[in-house]
Amino acid sequence: MNCFANYSKKNYLSLEGFSMWVITVFLKGNIKIFEFDTEKEAKELFKNMKGTKILSEIVYFNDPCFV
Questions:
Q1: CA atoms in the 13 A half-sphere facing the CB of 48
Q2: Hey, is 10 helix, strand or coil?
């Protein structure tokens, strides 16, 4: 069974709909986490954030064929 049968080739290659972007910021003894739907949105804010920061792509599969 092809789990990606219902998704276009563009979405399959970009993992669109299967991922989110997270920025974790460490500043003055505090940790803050910010979630974004797109890489572009996350990278725009990432550039201007202060502190030690990590940009992560979180890939998840909630389709029953992956379980």
A1: 4
A2: helix
Amino acid at 54: I
* pTM for the predicted model, two decimal places: 0.67
Q: What would the pLDDT profile of 11-34 be if each residue is shown by its tens digit?
A: 444 555 678 999 999 999 999 999
Q: How far apart are CA 65 and CA 67, in angstroms?
A: 6
φ, ψ dihedrals at 14, nearest 5°: -95, -5
Residue 58: exposed, middle, or buried by beta-carbon count in 10 A (0-12, 13-18, 19+)?
exposed
